[in-house]
# Entry
Amino acid sequence: MDRIEQFSTIAPDIGNIFRYMSVATGVPLLVAVVYREWEMILPMLSVPVTLFLLGMLLVRVPREEREAPLSAALMAVALIWLAMALVSALPFSLGLGTPYLDAVFEAMSGWTDTGLTMMRSVDDLPRTLLFWRSLMQWLGGLGIVSFTIAMASRTGLTQFRLYRSEGRSEALMPSVVATGMEMWKIYIVLTAASIGLVLLSGIPLWDAVNIALVTISTGGFSIHSAGIPFYNNPFLEVLVVPIMIAGALPFKLYYILYRQNGVRFFDDQQARLLFMLIALGIVVIAWDLVTLNATDIPTAIRQALFMSAAGITSTGFQVASPNEWASVTVLFLSMLMVIGGASGSTAGGIKLSRVVLGFQSLLWWFRRMFVSGNVLVPFKYDGKVIPKNVADLEVSRNMLTIMLYFLSIFVATVLVMHLQPTSFDSSNVIFEIVSAMCNNGMTAGFVSPDMADPAKVLFILIMWIGRLEIIPVIMLVMGVFKRFD
# Structure
């Protein structure tokens, strides 16, 4: 099957995704009307109109009567996310006059739940665009394909492959549609609860809604340039922490809680590891701040709690600048960011499940070395015994993904230090690359509108690659070059 035939099998599905997203992306228009920001109507309207027209064009592509292969699904998902960023940049360019490259950076950061920004002053943005940034992160939290499959209520092998290609592997229900619907029900309930919780801090409703949207999605965009410290509200910082954690926990736990009227969070390996890493982060970062930065103990504990939770959950909020910390502390926080939250959550990073699987596979390999070749050593994961042939495949796939993450971070760091010479310490540059690759959004100040254009392009690519867990983008690149062989 050549590339044209592959595209024809999946083009109508891509078109339907764009049509459904055109409806969702029209929501900020309501904000423009409510706050009488009439000058933002046309710029904001450009997104749903462009997506709808693009969708209508693609659904008219004659479909081949065959299921799309996995390679086509992987390439399609990579294209969908890239196209969404390119189109979603229009309101920033048309409404603010922002350079288009900076606008694409902002949009990609939004959809991938990264939180890095090219806006010099967020406080000066119209409310329409502030909400647009928050909405992109909220929709991107569970995934573009996940949203449209749930809304379209269609199932099939193509939909399943698109869903899995987006980096989602949870199966709460027998079908992809049912799973998507359950995930979004849980997500909406968590969002509503988050808004109520943030309101307890006493901040205005507008602020609470935007903070809740980007926190439960582990995004990290803020409606103020100063971020959370703008409010000078320690109670708000405390309330935000459990919301970040809630977004980074596997959603299957909430499903079990709802269906079985009870769940033990610490029975789940990912949840247990998440809380252990947060506790470790509090101890290590607080110790470093006290001993290396001469920070007073109450401030050190407060910053360590918030930054550890924001780092491991890939939320990106921060109450301190890593640029002011010792290099060893920055690298430790980078380690938390690389690991990220749980699979089946809104968090980025390598994922806790891969860390657990990697650790257990190492133990399994070592146990096999110390026994006779005739002895069968069972591989246990998540309380289940996995057949050897399946275990070997899953372990190899898991280690390949982890290796690709670290390889991507290494190559991107070398490239960006050549493209953007800087006085920043190398630990801070690594920190920024990890933040982009793992869709975190914390920054030491290296990422800014003053970066060279090639460096901005590199960061856009890193955010895109990291959100889709590398493989779909690799498949897209291979597909493009293979076409011209």
